[in-house]
Structures are given as C-alpha cells and as structure tokens.
Design goal:
By secondary structure, this protein is an alpha/beta fold. Helices cover about 35% and strands about 20% of the residues. The chain contains 10 helices and 8 strands. Strands 1-2-4-3-5-6-7-8 form an 8-stranded mixed sheet, sandwiched between helices. Helix 3 crosses helix 4. The chain is globular and about 50 Å long.
Length: about 250
C-alpha cells in the first residue's frame, strides 16, 4: 500500500491501473469496521473494475486498516472523511472520479458529492438507503460493545456482530468506537436534492440497516435504484448482480 497526508492524518490507499492501460478513475470508500481489502479486494470489486477498464483507487478510512488511528469522536465526522477522499484525489492529481461507497462509505461519498460536486462524475451508494436522511443507520450500542471487556454481552445482536467482525479484521476497537460515535451525520432532503451527479443506490431486499434504497433514489435529481433480491447488509456488497449493475451504470453515465 501507499500512503499520503490528509491534513496531518496519515492514510493508506491502493491505486490499481486498469487492465490494458489507462482508464477512468473510480474511488472506493469502505464501510465501518472494514478496510479496503475486506470491502473491495476480497469481494472482487477491484478485479471487476480493473478488468472492465477502470483505474481503481481504494483507501483505508481514518481509524481503519493501515491508516492512522484516532480516538476523538470529533475527528470522525462524515464531512471530515469526505475531505480525506477529496485530498486523495488531489494527491493523485485526479480532477474528477466516479465515487463508490458502501454503508458508512456511501455516507462519506454523499457528503463528498455535496461538498465538492465538481470532483464527482457519478455517485454509487451501496448499503445505504433512506437512512442517509432519516435516522443514523446502525443501531445504538455498537461503540459500547467495541469498548467492552472480552466476553461481555453486547447490547443487541448487531452490536455483537460488529464486535466479532472488528476482532476478525484485527481492528483497533477503541478507534472504531470513536468513529461510530462521530461519523453518523445525516443529510437533509434539500441537501440530497442538490446532488446532481448521476447516482445509483443499491441495497439488498433483506437489509434492515440501510433503509429503503428506492425511496432514497427518488430524492436525487438523477437517481436510480437497484435492489438485490434476498441479500442483507453483509451479503449485498459482493453480490454478482451488484457488480453487474454498477458496470452497466458506469457504461451509460455521461
């Protein structure tokens, strides 16, 4: 991996060229408690995009993977992490890219599209529906579960699942707890309506975390919804229909 400085925070990233040479850049932003490898490499997204002719960039968000760990929740705002993504584009001298995020990464991508629309060719939001504007998405109790002593009961099954996932990925649990407390900002419906980039919203029909994808898609001026049958929040990300739908969308966007 490579690294760069984002306003004094060291962030790790990969930059994989398209098969056969140059191609339009796609920036991938992973979800909470994940990292670029778990979210995008292991699920075949990097291979799929590079083989389709796209230069594929993926970062480890602050507090995750090989990027710097921070322990103050105020350093994990979705707007701050959106600026990390923008600075990575600056670092790579990329004026505009297709921006794809999953779950928390989709929230970050939406903030980037609102704050720096000139940098976003298209917006691909996975694992996040109406909870971008209504509610916080993931339930309460996750930060507390991450900070609890090993073996302590979690407040709810979702919190327990994230604790297990974070341990499996050998994450810094204290940094993730700070991130959970600081990164759950919502956009208003009026703000979503300002995002004019072509937007694809992809959610699984069994996803109880994201909120309605089709309902969110209607709020974007150029929004399209893709529903993945019988997929939940964890299984939708690497679904073959998800990858096919994204490639079709990218091929048709301006």
């Amino acid at each position: 991996m490579q690294s760069f400085d984002s306003d004094s925070v060291s962030l790790a990233y990969i930059d994989v060229p398209a098969v056969g040479g140059s191609g339009d850049p796609v920036l991938l932003i992973h979800g909470f408690a994940s990292n670029h490898a778990v979210n995008w490499v292991n699920t075949l997204w990097v291979r799929t995009l590079t083989q389709a002719g796209y230069r594929t960039i993926a970062l480890d968000n602050r507090g995750h993977g090989e990027s710097q760990k921070l322990y103050d929740p105020e350093l994990y705002g979705a707007d701050l992490m959106a600026q990390d993504a923008r600075r990575l584009l600056d670092h790579l001298e990329i004026p505009k890219a297709d921006i794809m995020g999953y779950s928390m990464g989709a929230r970050i991508a939406a903030f980037l599209a609102l704050d720096a629309p000139e940098r976003v060719r298209s917006l691909l939001l996975g694992g996040l529906g109406l909870h971008l504007v209504e509610g916080k998405g993931l339930p309460d109790g996750i930060a507390e579960a991450l900070e609890a002593e090993p073996g302590a009961p979690a407040p709810n099954p979702t919190a327990a699942a994230f604790r297990t996932f974070a341990e499996q990925t050998r994450s810094d649990l204290r940094a993730l707890a700070a991130c959970m407390r600081g990164s759950r900002q919502a956009l208003s419906r009026a703000e979503v309506a300002e995002i004019r980039a072509p937007t694809l919203v992809t959610t699984g029909t069994l996803d109880t975390v994201s909120g309605s994808g089709p309902a969110l898609a209607t709020l974007f001026p150029n929004g399209t919804a893709l529903e993945l049958q019988n997929r939940d929040h964890s299984t939708a990300v690497g679904d073959r229909t998800h990858r096919t739908g994204v490639l079709d969308f990218l091929a048709k966007r301006p």
